[in-house]
Amino acid sequence: MAESIEEGYETLIKNRNNMILGGTAFLRLRNKNINIGIDLSNLESDYIREDKNNIEIGPMTTFRSIETNKICHYSRSYSSF
User: Fold this and answer.
1) When comparing pLDDT for 1 and 49, which is higher?
2) Is residue 15 part of a domain?
3) Are residues 34 and 55 in the same domain?
4) Does residue 81 form part of some domain?
5) In which domain, by residue range, is 67 found?
6) What is the pLDDT of residues 39-75, one digit of tens each?
7) How much of the chain is in helix, strand and coil states, percent to nearest 5?
């Protein structure tokens, strides 16, 4: 389990068979030889934040979290179309 984004990145580039694994992506890799599976789940990057002009969604945020979070519901203030 990586303790930081930097540690995860360093582990990833050490060997071309090292992979970041998350969700169910690894299920499609049945025939691939994985040297090290890198877990980023403890990096607290699953967040949804709102400030005056933006909504920020972390890279580990699930689609379900986005779907159910009230911040992500349509608002004219965020519409750019």
Assistant:
1) 49
2) yes
3) no
4) no
5) 48-75
6) 888 888 889 999 888 999 988 888 999 999 988 876 5
7) 35, 10, 55
